[in-house]
Specification:
This protein has 97 residues and is mainly α. The protein contains three helices and no strands.
Length: 97
Amino acid sequence: MSTNPNPPNSHSHSHTETKQVLHRLARASGHLDAVRKMVEEGQNCSDVLIQLSAVISALNRAGKVLLLDHLKHCVTDAEEGLGAWEEVEDALDKFFR
């Protein structure tokens, strides 16, 4: 496992939506802990699945905020090097794996 904080094809900078993304991730993490407890307690599978779906949605919303931030800032920077479309494709590929 690589310990390089900035592997090739990456960049380091502040995202404008970092606080919002961290807040969404913290909420999703807390929600996931509650789902784990539901499973441990043997609660109804349908209820667990509904709550698990909510966690997945919360993570997707956090990813969307980060993706939009990336598109607004990083892709704009790539336009100068004429690699904007490739940057968009790369970002979408990473998000929708």
